[in-house]
Amino acid sequence: DLGDRQVTISHGPVPELRWPAMTMAFGVEEGVQLRGLQRGGKVRFSFAEGSQDGTYVIQAIEEGDGS
Fold first, then answer.
1. Fewer CB atoms near the end CB (10 Å): N or C, the chain?
2. Using CB atoms within 10 A of its CB, is residue 58 exposed (0-12), middle (13-18) or buried (19+)?
């Protein structure tokens, strides 16, 4: 799902963080373009821990096969 500065993504496991596969909302860093992405489409993205409240933010995102 795409919001103004938030994206909800279903992703595979992230072993480095001990995360199972899940669907979660990410904030989007200022300057990251969401234009051209489609709801339900596959993407490649990178993220990092954001603010002090433990949220995670997208640093880069593009259409892709999700691998």
1. C
2. buried
